[in-house]
Specification:
Chain lengths: ~325, ~700
């Protein structure tokens, strides 16, 4: 009995078998209850006891080797098969998809929220005022004289008379500054407020002008608050809002009847093209008087920020009218 | 306003380059934008601030300003005229009927002038501002306006009727013919310059045809004056006649310029047209002397938050032509400042502090953190609620818009007459589409949907904004507006627009913690909102939205004609909600609801009901009969087919049974199902099918 030769033949046979079926037939033939290994053991009785022991050992070894070889062959085949099947399940992960439909919050809402949060951290309360105002709140109280060009119909939307409010002419507010008046008449200083809102101007509509736009009014009245504080608050706000290292801020003289001294704040990223972002100044003593405060005892800072302008600058929006558009191709970008 | 660089150089010969000058002006005085090269000159676009228009709209004033910034002196034209020995007694005299509206009035009589064409340099100077050259006399007056800023006027003396120039206010409807031969009927009170017969000029606005200087003119009267600026603006507005002159007077010229302008104009007339200036011409002055401003050094630091040296402060004040004196009063050093006559804008301490700050350099004032008690900023509750609503709308898949507050007349055609009476109208609307303030959000959102639908098949929009309407005797303008919330859908969903919208709206309410929202038929509803919006919505495809039995909004599909007007094809639905009501009847803080750990059992039930049966009524019947073990109920199918069911429809519900305390058995659930079926079949028209 040449076990060695058998070993070589059988291992070669396993190697050559490529499918599970063949392996199963081989297993039955060799390792099954009626298989050849059993037969070999049965034939042992024909040998001398010493010979029997030696050959018996060799048969046992052969059995182990065949079992191991089958196992090895099978896992290999399994892996191969698995790889084949999984590959068939390949998906194209690069296939473009249409993003799931979600809602979008308007840029104005998110910007106003960001702005209010920054000012909240600076200790400013957020308050609101109505779009329709009296002539006194919008002009007289703010030290804008009668027959000032700003009151002309060419700049202001006047409303047809209805039942009068405090026998005043009514208009659509041309700035959020009436919020200063409303607040100072109803609250005792010291105070710090911001007041966002829609404002209206009688203007030709183009890419940078609209008949409605958004402003944020700021006001702080205190015993010693000063111009350097105003500059600090505005700088802090602008840096925080834009979070842009290259942001350059330019302060230049300006004129608003309700502040003195008055300034404009321009912004630029390249130091060449400047965009006016806000007007500001120290509250004019006449405004304090009009709100029953003594200018000898109180000082105030005030600012008006053009919200649309800031948004356009931050998000590179070329046309102010887009902010009033309902076009989803615009709305969905933000 | 455009200014010529070369012209400014006549006042300040060694000016910095145009670019450098523009930069200095921008940072210290007036924003200067475009610089345009024109021949060997440069035109600078300088945005003179409104309070400086009275002095800086003239080259003299602007040059003074530039000189202050550069710490230089200007070359002033030496105005020297010879006066004849002859007096002006034979020329018209002056009568002033309304003294309070005339601040200053000066005349000069010039005899024997030669009217001819102006020299080229003068024509060129006028052309820079787009002024046509007329003749040497008129051109001299215009030159005065450009240099000094003071409008002057010249009359042909021989065309004046009678012996007097009269300053008065017009009677209602008085006639005036302007230089351009245009006739005006004047409103009462217009300030006019007249002779004994006719009106010669509208004070401060426009000269008249009657005493116009022509080729044959020999003897002239030069007028330079100062009038009540508000009256000039008022007349300009009433006649819709705004001129270079009226703009300058309206800006509030200093009366000081009137005398200066007269001398300057006469000087140039004499130079260009010859003639003899007569002495003792009549004049009138009616303005108070300017009071000095007391400015303590300490005030400057208090306002600016920076200490600028006393020496520098005084130097700056002197550089802007202020006369100063220092006094001491109870340990305080005070500067007594007499601003120059031509600076009407320097009246109070703060005005002078601004001069000091800007000439010192705004960029040199270091930002200083506010030292104050620490406090957290507050947010109005209303705003917190608004943010929550917006977040919920976002989660439910709506896109936020901000549409115009204005609507047009045609947009409102569908509203009933009662509602239209409450609409607020803009007096000076500039386009019919922007004539009214929107009384509801539905109209503007329909416009929005229409715009969006052009580019997107399915559109879901929302807006939270005020609407406007008249109210009875409002105490504050805030009562004329009210916040509303609108949701809109346009597209082609399988469920129909109404239910697509209702589905998402329900998600919004749920997200806001409003679980008890009910819907009821719009028809014959008595509430204000339903009446106001009634004209827009389909009467049988619309419902009231109620929370705790109070109407908070309306949801529905617009009528066909409305969709057509707004060019909306396909399915459309809107829901307009009154926020105030929603929030007052609104939600308490959300509380945890126990989640059962026991398994649920499921049953389906289907029943045939008459077509007009409300599904919610059937569902309520099932709920009541099902008791508290019926954990949830879901209407999953509605089938209508006239061939199969005639006048009926089939409703199919999933019922979910679950206990919080134990595992339910099939038997228990079957018992409940029997109860439900029994309850449903008490209605003879209902037919359950299982």
């Amino acid at each position: 009995m040449d076990i060695r030769k058998l070993e070589k033949q059988t291992l070669e046979q396993i190697e050559k078998t490529s499918d599970e079926n063949g392996l199963r037939i081989f297993e039955k033939q060799w390792l099954g209850p009626k298989g050849k290994i059993r037969e070999l053991f049965r034939e042992l009785k024909n040998f001398e006891p010493e010979e029997r022991k030696k050959i018996g050992g060799e048969i046992n070894l052969l059995k182990k080797e065949l079992t191991a070889a089958l196992e090895k062959k099978r896992t290999g085949a399994e892996k191969e098969k698995q790889g084949f099947v999984l590959e068939k399940e390949w998906l194209d992960a690069t296939r473009p998809v249409k993003p799931a439909e979600i809602g979008h919050i308007h840029l104005l809402t998110s910007a106003l929220k960001d702005i209010a949060l920054i000012f909240k951290n600076l200790g400013f309360d957020s308050v609101s005022g109505p779009d329709i105002e009296t002539e006194w709140n919008n002009f007289d109280a703010l030290n804008i004289p009668a027959y000032h060009p700003a009151r002309e119909t060419a700049d202001t939307f006047w409303l047809n008379q209805m039942s009068n409010v405090k026998s005043q002419k009514l208009l659509l507010r041309t700035h959020t500054s009436p919020s200063q008046i409303r607040h100072l008449l109803s609250h005792k200083p010291p105070c710090r407020i911001v007041s966002p809102g829609k404002v209206y101007r009688f203007e030709a509509i183009d890419a940078s002008h609209n008949i409605e736009f958004w402003q944020l009014e700021g006001l702080a009245v205190d015993k010693n608050i000063n111009f350097a504080n105003l500059l600090d608050i505005l700088r802090t706000f602008l840096k925080e809002f834009f979070k842009e290292k290259n942001l350059k801020i330019r302060i230049r003289p300006s004129y608003y009847p309700f502040v003195e001294p008055g300034i404009d704040i321009d912004l630029s990223f390249d130091g060449k093209k400047w965009i006016e972002a806000a007007g500001a100044g120290m509250v004019h003593p006449n405004v304090l008087k009009n709100t029953k405060l003594n200018p000898e005892g109180w000082q105030g800072i005030a600012f008006g920020i053009g919200v649309d302008r800031l948004i356009m600058l931050k998000h590179k929006i070329p046309d102010i009218r887009l902010l009033h558009s309902a076009d989803l191709r615009f709305l969905k970008q933000f | 306003m455009l200014f010529s660089y070369n012209w400014l150089k006549e006042y300040i010969p060694n000016l910095p380059s145009p670019e450098k000058l523009a930069e200095i002006l921008t940072l210290k005085a007036f924003e200067t934008g475009k610089i345009e090269k024109k021949g060997n000159d440069f035109l600078l676009e300088i945005d003179i601030l409104p309070n400086r228009a009275p002095d800086c709209w003239g080259y003299l004033g602007l040059s003074r300003e530039i000189a202050s910034l550069l710490n230089k002196k200007i070359n002033e034209t030496v105005v020297k005229t010879k006066e004849s020995d002859e007096g002006a007694e034979n020329f018209p005299g002056l009568e002033i009927q309304n003294k309070k509206n005339f601040n200053a009035y000066y005349l000069k009589m010039i005899k024997g002038v030669k009217v001819k064409s102006s020299p080229l340099w003068l024509k060129n100077k006028l052309a820079l501002r787009g002024i046509n050259s007329i003749n040497n006399i008129v051109d001299a007056a215009n030159l005065t306006m450009l240099e000094i800023g003071q409008p002057t006027h010249v009359f042909d003396c021989d065309k004046i009727s009678g012996k007097k120039i009269i300053l008065r206010q017009a009677k209602q409807g008085e006639k005036f013919v302007s230089l351009e031969n245009k006739a005006y009927s004047l409103p009462r009170g217009t300030l006019v310059i007249a002779d004994e017969k006719d009106i010669l000029a509208l004070a401060g606005i426009k000269g008249g045809k009657k005493a116009e200087v022509g080729e044959k003119t020999k003897n002239i009267v030069v007028e330079s004056a100062n009038f009540s600026s508000s009256l000039i603006l008022k007349t300009g507005k009433e006649l819709n006649l705004i001129t270079d002159s009226s703009r300058r007077f309206g800006a509030g010229l200093s009366p000081y310029f009137a005398k200066l302008g007269l001398g300057f104009c006469a000087f140039w007339i004499e130079k260009l047209a010859g003639g003899e200036i007569l002495k003792n011409a009549p004049k009138f002055e009616n303005f108070a002397e300017k009071l000095p401003v007391l400015l303590p050094f300490s005030k400057i630091e208090n306002i600016l938050g920076k200490k600028i040296s006393e020496k520098e402060i005084l130097k700056i004040l002197k550089s802007v032509y202020c006369e100063i004196k220092i006094i001491k009063k109870t340990n305080e050093k005070i500067i007594v400042v007499a601003p120059p006559l031509w600076r009407e804008d320097l009246k109070i301490q703060e005005d002078l502090i601004e001069e000091i700050a800007r000439i010192h350099g705004l960029e040199k004032i270091k930002p200083l953190p506010l030292v104050s008690e620490i406090k957290l900023g507050g947010t109005e509750e209303k705003n917190v609620a608004r943010e929550q609503i917006k977040d919920s709308a976002l989660k439910a898949g709506f896109n936020e818009v901000y549409l115009y507050s204005f609507v047009g007349e045609k947009d409102l055609n569908f509203l009933n007459s009662q509602t239209l009476k409450k609409v607020i109208e803009v007096k000076n609307f500039f386009r019919p589409e922007f004539r009214y303030l929107r009384p509801n959000l539905s109209v503007s959102l329909l416009k929005g949907l229409s715009e969006a639908k052009k580019y997107s098949p399915n559109v879901r929009l929302f807006e939270l904004s005020p609407v406007f309407s008249k109210t009875e005797k409002p105490k504050d303008t805030g009562e004329l507006q009210e916040d509303r919330l609108i949701f809109g859908f346009a597209g082609g969903e399988k469920d129909g627009a109404f239910f697509e919208l209702k589905k998402r709206l329900s998600a919004v309410f749920e997200s806001l913690g409003l679980f008890k929202i009910e819907y009821s038929d719009l028809l014959n509803a008595e509430c204000e909102l339903a009446k106001d919006l009634g004209g827009i919505f389909h009467p049988f495809r619309t419902a009231l939205i109620k929370s705790k039995n109070e109407v908070v909004g309306v949801i529905g599909e617009p009528k066909e004609e409305i969709k057509k007007y707004f060019e909306l094809n396909g399915e459309v639905a809107l829901a307009e909600i009154e926020i105030e009501k929603l929030l007052t009847v609104g939600a308490p803080a959300k509380e945890y609801r126990q989640i059962s750990k026991y398994p649920a059992l499921y049953r389906d039930i289907a029943l045939l009901v008459p077509k007009k049966t409300k599904a919610t009524n059937v569902q309520n019947l099932i709920k009541t009969a099902g008791g508290e073990l019926l954990a949830d109920i879901d209407l999953f199918d509605i089938y209508e087919n006239e061939k199969v069911f005639a006048e009926k429809k089939n409703l199919a519900f999933h019922l979910i049974f679950q206990s919080k305390d134990k595992t339910l058995s099939d038997k228990e659930v079957d018992e409940i199902m029997k109860k439900i079926v029994k309850q449903l079949e008490t209605n003879p028209e209902f037919e359950t099918r299982r």
